[in-house]
Design brief:
- The protein is mainly alpha-helical.
- About 65% of the residues lie in helices and about 10% in strands.
- Helix 2 crosses helix 4.
- It is elongated and about 65 Å long.
């Protein structure tokens, strides 16, 4: 265990960034392993998550892109993959023919609901070693980092 009181701010910052990157990788590996059981990727799940916001309606492709966790995701490809699996549908927008509407299917809703139950358990086991106060502090600190 390092004596952090002897470290410089630069050394602490370097360790912090390293820990964030390692933790991000660890969470991604856990997530990828979880979604692989359902023949999905984290990005495909994220599209389903967005579509569930307006379960009875549809989204334009650009609206989905705005709501994605990763703005670098190829949303067109992800929607196509979900469509091939029967979890999403595409249709032309009657008011704007250049726009495509994307909606979740009933099979997509069933899958999402099943995923949510199992994902909640994974989230719980992943974070159970933190107290409520520690989790709140960590959230605030991560948000503070993002706001810079």
């Amino acid at each position: 265990m390092k004596n952090h009181s002897l470290l410089t701010k630069k050394e602490i910052s370097k360790e912090m960034i390293h820990n964030i990157l390692v933790t991000n990788n660890w969470i991604n590996e856990k997530s990828n392993s979880f979604f692989k059981k359902f023949n999905l990727s984290l990005q495909q799940y994220n599209v389903l998550q967005v579509l569930m916001e307006k379960q009875e309606e549809s989204y334009a492709l650009r609206e989905i892109q705005i709501r994605m966790l990763s703005k670098m995701s190829n949303t067109t490809r992800l929607v196509g993959q979900l469509e091939n699996k029967g979890f999403a549908t595409r249709s032309r927008n009657l008011k704007n023919r250049r726009e495509v509407n994307i909606a979740i299917t009933s099979e997509g809703v069933k899958l999402f609901q099943r995923l949510e139950k199992e994902l909640n358990q994974l989230k719980k086991t992943t974070t159970e070693q933190l107290t409520k106060v520690e989790a709140l502090i960590l959230n605030r600190l991560l948000e503070k980092l993002k706001d810079t």
